[in-house]
């Protein structure tokens, strides 16, 4: 919570979720009628995004905990079998095992009890026994992020679901629709200002933009594609997006003038927006965003850019 990167990524998530900084929202809003209640639309979209984010968070954590629990149960089963073999060959004494322990139906609490007992009794040679602690917290700490969350953690968890093929198909259909929905707004943010400025045919321009985006996207499906995804995500989609939003905020509140902008809103809405927006747009938002940008740049200066690479089964930096 004290790292600037955490807050920058949180801000970026808000930008992505609401489509801020991409031009899509501005492009779509340009098709609205002059007297459209954009205030209601903005509040409604913000609340929908908030509740959707909360729902997505619950789903993600539920799936990750489910996956960790499955792996933990498998770990307990495998290590219980190891303990049984150690008891059979005489490496462990049956006397140290509590009488209520049933290895055929052992619980996580019972296994942890047995594990602690063996660790104390066989302190010197414990490492040679090859037993694992099987803590569900350790599995949760291994949870992946980014693309790995969707393509590794979720897919692995869904293999344990009832009717797993159905959920797998639904999950990847959701990803396809999510990508298409995002691209609609992104392409619209590119094509609308060009069409309005240069009066070119929108169909041709859209095809050109899609082909160009497709060509650029090919680098992400190469064997080294994950490196490019990481670099784009860290350096092309976060910091630049933050700078764009700051410039947009400054352009409206300072260059165009917040007072004039508020008058325009009053003319379109038929009522004066709350003064809360005035102070947020003019003072709070620019200061917070600029502080976040400065902190991010300072942090990047202390920690030079880099990425993890796997070479000959060794993790190099």
TrEMBL record:
<feature type="binding site">
    <location>
        <position position="49"/>
    </location>
    <ligand>
        <name>Na(+) 2</name>
    </ligand>
</feature>
<dbReference type="Pfam" id="PF00209">
    <property type="entry name" value="SNF"/>
</dbReference>
<feature type="binding site">
    <location>
        <position position="182"/>
    </location>
    <ligand>
        <name>Na(+) 1</name>
    </ligand>
</feature>
<feature type="transmembrane region" description="Helical">
    <location>
        <begin position="204"/>
        <end position="221"/>
    </location>
</feature>
<feature type="transmembrane region" description="Helical">
    <location>
        <begin position="43"/>
        <end position="66"/>
    </location>
</feature>
<feature type="transmembrane region" description="Helical">
    <location>
        <begin position="241"/>
        <end position="258"/>
    </location>
</feature>
<protein>
    <recommendedName>
        <fullName>Solute carrier family 6 member 15</fullName>
    </recommendedName>
</protein>
<keyword id="KW-0915">Sodium</keyword>
<feature type="transmembrane region" description="Helical">
    <location>
        <begin position="278"/>
        <end position="298"/>
    </location>
</feature>
<keyword id="KW-0479">Metal-binding</keyword>
<dbReference type="GO" id="GO:0005886">
    <property type="term" value="C:plasma membrane"/>
</dbReference>
<keyword id="KW-0472">Membrane</keyword>
<feature type="transmembrane region" description="Helical">
    <location>
        <begin position="166"/>
        <end position="184"/>
    </location>
</feature>
<dbReference type="GO" id="GO:0005298">
    <property type="term" value="F:proline:sodium symporter activity"/>
</dbReference>
<dbReference type="GO" id="GO:0046872">
    <property type="term" value="F:metal ion binding"/>
</dbReference>
<feature type="binding site">
    <location>
        <position position="178"/>
    </location>
    <ligand>
        <name>Na(+) 1</name>
    </ligand>
</feature>
<keyword id="KW-0812">Transmembrane</keyword>
<dbReference type="InterPro" id="IPR037272">
    <property type="entry name" value="SNS_sf"/>
</dbReference>
<dbReference type="GO" id="GO:0015820">
    <property type="term" value="P:L-leucine transport"/>
</dbReference>
<keyword id="KW-1133">Transmembrane helix</keyword>
<feature type="transmembrane region" description="Helical">
    <location>
        <begin position="12"/>
        <end position="31"/>
    </location>
</feature>
<keyword id="KW-0813">Transport</keyword>
<dbReference type="InterPro" id="IPR000175">
    <property type="entry name" value="Na/ntran_symport"/>
</dbReference>
């Amino acid at each position: 919570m004290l790292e600037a990167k955490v807050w920058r990524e949180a801000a970026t998530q808000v930008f992505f979720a609401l489509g801020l900084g991409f031009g899509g929202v501005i492009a779509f809003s340009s098709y609205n009628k002059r007297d459209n209640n954009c205030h209601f639309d903005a509040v409604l979209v913000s609340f929908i995004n908030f509740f959707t984010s909360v729902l997505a968070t619950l789903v993600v954590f539920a799936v990750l905990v489910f996956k960790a629990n499955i792996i933990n149960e498998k770990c307990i089963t495998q290590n219980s079998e190891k303990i049984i073999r150690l008891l059979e060959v005489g490496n462990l004494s049956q006397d140290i095992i509590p009488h209520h322990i049933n290895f055929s139906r052992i619980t996580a609490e019972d296994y942890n009890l047995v594990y602690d007992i063996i660790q104390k009794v066989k302190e010197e040679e414990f490492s040679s026994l090859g037993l694992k602690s099987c803590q569900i917290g350790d599995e949760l700490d291994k949870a992946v992020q980014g693309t790995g969350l969707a393509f590794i953690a979720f897919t692995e968890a869904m293999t344990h679901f009832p009717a797993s093929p159905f959920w797998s198909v639904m999950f990847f259909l959701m990803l396809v629709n999510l990508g298409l929905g995002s691209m609609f707004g992104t392409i619209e943010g590119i094509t609308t200002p060009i069409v309005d400025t240069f009066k070119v045919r929108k169909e041709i321009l859209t095809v050109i933009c899609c082909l160009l985006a497709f060509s650029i996207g090919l680098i992400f499906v190469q064997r080294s594609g994950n490196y490019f995804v990481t670099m784009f995500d860290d350096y092309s989609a976060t910091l630049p997006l933050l700078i764009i939003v700051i410039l947009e905020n400054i352009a409206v509140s300072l260059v165009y003038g917040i007072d004039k902008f508020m008058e325009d809103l009053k003319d379109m809405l038929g009522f004066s927006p709350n003064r809360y927006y005035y102070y947020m747009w003019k003072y709070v938002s620019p200061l917070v965003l600029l502080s976040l940008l400065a902190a991010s740049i300072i942090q990047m200066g202390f920690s030079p850019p880099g990425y993890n690479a796997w070479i000959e089964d060794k993790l190099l930096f």
